[in-house]
Amino acid sequence: MIGMDQDKITHLVEENDLLRNELRVAHEAAELTAELVVKQFEQTEREKQRFQTVAANLEGFRRTLDQISDGVFMLDSRSNRFIYVNQGGLMLTGYSEKELSSMTFTDLIPSLSTDEMEKTFKKLRVEPHEPITLTSTKTRKNGVMVPVEIFLQYISPEGRPGRFFSLVRNISERLLEEKEKEKMQAKLLHTQKLESVGALAAGIAHEINTPIQYIGTNLQFFEESCEDIDEVLTSMMELLEEMKDGKVNKERVEALESLMEEIELDFLREEIPSAVKQAREGVNKVSSLVNAMKAFSHPGSRDKEIGNINEIIETTLQVSRNEWKYVADVELDLAADMPNINCHVNEIGQVLLNIIVNGAHAINDRLTEDPQGAKGVIHIGTEAWQDSVEIKIADNGKGIPQEIIDKIFDPFFTTKDVGKGTGQGLAIARDVIISKHKGTIEVNSEPGRGAEFVITLPKDGGEEHE
To answer: By the 8 A CB rule, do 335 and 382 touch?
Structure first.
């Protein structure tokens, strides 16, 4: 019995140890579970807070976008339908967010066909980092057409479907400002043209006066010659009448011969055709100068027209001749195959005039410092390329100091004395060539050696770049 009791006691002890061990494990499991629950709760709270923060940020971002006056649109990359639009977009289109959700860009921009839009979107998908900017006209819900500038880009967030992002801006005011700017520039250009005409007037008058003088001299010669010839003709007619009656008076014949010698009839026969030729040349020269001046001073059209650079250069040289002929010779190297181009003919003429006259003045300044120096040279050359034409105008005047060469195209910058220059000539030249024709104008100069201006103009007048 004692032995059995001992076995039971041993068994009870073992069971007790096992139970205590199980309790310990259960307690540890409970503590671990509680810790996991707490951690899960804390993580859930953090996720909740993070979600609330993201939501708040998104709402703040949405409110920020709604403050932008430009339209911000997001489009689904598969259906091309709007999936987001800010308040600026709603105001710009006049549609509600619900209405826009079933629309695409082509519904708002009639000028863009579905095929054109698809090609644009396809290009954006292929080159997602290359945004596209275009201008068009957007139709509001009320039918009003609004000129807009559209910025498009494909955005592909990591692990999420791609989207088309678009920023649309109403450019009505900008276009009005640009029109006003164009009007002001046109007025400024015309004012400078009139100023140039005024400055050239004395020279033009002198250029016209020279042929007018020898036309007048030749006319006086014609008048005197006609009187002498009339006297000879009268004497010959009288002699002819006597011959008809069979009365040939030797004295009358001798008198006629004497008269012919007296008026130098042989000399008149040689000189009259020469005088007529000179007079005709004078008339042609005056006519050419007047036509050149009319062409140069004409206000021109607001639209580009077909013109020939070589002809514009020759016209400009005619009207500016008195500015350069005393200080320089002009050398021309004009391309024989120069094509016509699309341009503002009168404005290009004004640009060339400014550069040619500036070159003549630079040569005159050099000759003033060195009166014994040789007469200067203005070299003008043209070249035709595949898509453009090139004009080079070089002089061997004083040149442009390197410290100011970057400023010569700035408005109102001039090195001339007060009253002799407004500083607008080259500024206008730059605007005409770059802004209006999408061309280039560059200057190379070495002080004491002269300057060279190089102008390139697209044959299409820059239309493809606009």
So the answer is: yes
Question: pLDDT tens across 230-288, in order?
Answer: 888 888 887 787 777 777 677 777 777 888 888 888 888 888 888 888 788 778 878 87
Q: Domain check: are 190 and 241 in the same one? A: yes
Sequence-ordered list of residues with C-beta below 8 angstroms from that of 266, at least 6 positions apart, any chain:
none
Do 187 and 197 meet the contact criterion of CB atoms below 8 Å apart? no
Q: How far apart are CA 364 and CA 395, in angstroms?
A: 11
Range of the domain at 441: 300-466
Same domain, 306 and 294: no
List the CATH number of the domain containing 158.
Answer: 3.30.450.20
Separation of alpha carbons 141 and 461, rounded Å: 37
Q: Say yes or no: 310 and 250 in one domain.
A: no
The residue behind tokens 């095929």 is 115
Nearest-5° angle of CA 320, CA 436, CA 455?
55
Cα–Cα distance for residue pair 329/360, rounded to 1 Å: 10
Distance of CA 154 to the CA centre of its chain: 31
Helices then strands, each counted (H, E), the chain: 11, 12
Confidence of residue 339 (pLDDT cuts 50, 70, 90): very high
CA dist., res. 226 & res. 231, Å (int): 8
Shared domain for 127 and 196, answered yes or no, is: no
Separation of alpha carbons 169 and 135, rounded Å: 9
Structural element, H or E, at residue 196: helix 172-244
Do 157 and 180 form a contact (C-beta atoms < 8 A)?
no
Q: Is the pTM of this model over 0.90?
A: no
- Same domain assignment for residues 159 and 251: no
Q: Mind listing the pLDDT tens digit for each residue in 159-210?
A: 677 888 888 888 888 888 888 877 777 777 667 666 666 666 666 776 777 7
* Number of independent structural domains in the chain: 4
Tell me which residue of 133, 126, 74, 65 sits closest to 105, measured CA to CA: 74
